[in-house]
Amino acid sequence: MPRKPGNAKARPRSPTSGSQSKRPRLLTPAGRDQVNVNNGDAQQNQLQKIASDAREEIRSQKWAVIVASATKQPYDSQVQQYKEWKRAGSKHDGHCCICLRAERERHMQCHTCKIVFHPECLSRGSYSIRNHTFYCSICIDRSWDSSPPDTLPVSLEPTSAQTHGPPSHTTTDNSNAASIPHLQYPTPSLNLQREGHRTQSATRVYRPRGTDRNTSHGIAHPGPAGQTATESPQRTDHQRKLDYTLSSDVLSSLYRLYREIELVASLRAEIEELRAQNTKYAETIRMNKRFRDALLAGIQNSQTMDARFVGTAENINDMFANLEELVVSERQTASAKEPK
């Protein structure tokens, strides 16, 4: 007769079957090494990401300092520096503005200023490429990528004075004196001399302006012998200027002094630029120190994590050894209980 399902007796399981199904999977030495390698790669990737983020932050902070230093100057001063830079031949800096390394073969130069980058020193938002031309964000904010300031050539030679008198009354010394505004009129402190071509009129008596005004209305005044009322007593300003001359040495000295005074503005601009560079270098030193401290802290953290990882690996190996001993003891116990 076939057995009914309800009457069937369940066979007892062997004492070793449950323990064998629940036995943990043991790792071979090669598997343990692979786990260690994978954990080391993940830790290395994490450290590389931390270092990359730190470098990007430092580049952004350095560029922010450069932008603040550039925008602090008045716009007129910026335009003047641009014009002087263009007249000097548009020479760029010999080092990168971020890392300060001089590697000219890898420089990326801004088209409208002297700033230079390395490709790996570019930070987000610090540059742009317009029409296949590289521009920094400072020039883009000034709209110099589309409409840079106009530059006109400036002659360093003195301009000749425009005189309204006859050409025979002008000399080389007078033209030099006319090119300097404060030398166009005689001063009491200078050693003045009479011109040679004025010797014939040396006996002329100068009358006050009021007397000249009366004479212009037809009132005649007595004068020295040979002087008539028909001679015009009024003298133009140009004739008064030609009454006196200066020696060429005095004129050249005064001209050099005048040119030096004109150079004061450019020297002040250079001083401000040097101060800005000193500030930038000081900030760069501070940023490098912070980056070094961050790297040291990252190295210390990695060493701590390595020590913890080694301790955890040893604990796991001890657990595996204990489990193996437990399995062996269970097998021995089960074999001892089996009937012979």
UniProtKB/TrEMBL annotation:
Organism's domain of life? Answer: Eukaryota
UniProt keyword Zinc-finger, yes or no = yes
Record keyword Zinc present: yes
What keywords tag this UniProt record?
Answer: Coiled coil, Metal-binding, Zinc, Zinc-finger
Could you give a GO molecular-function term held by this entry? zinc ion binding
Compositional bias per record (Polar residues), positions renumbered to this chain: 35-44, 157-178
Query: Which residues lie within the region annotated Disordered?
Result: 1-44, 149-238
List the coiled-coil residues: 257-284
Q: Which InterPro entries match?
A: Zinc_finger_PHD-type_CS, Znf_FYVE_PHD, Znf_RING/FYVE/PHD
The protein's name in its UniProt record: Zinc finger PHD-type domain-containing protein
- Which organism was this protein described from? Penicillium flavigenum
List the lineage, top down. Eukaryota, Fungi, Dikarya, Ascomycota, Pezizomycotina
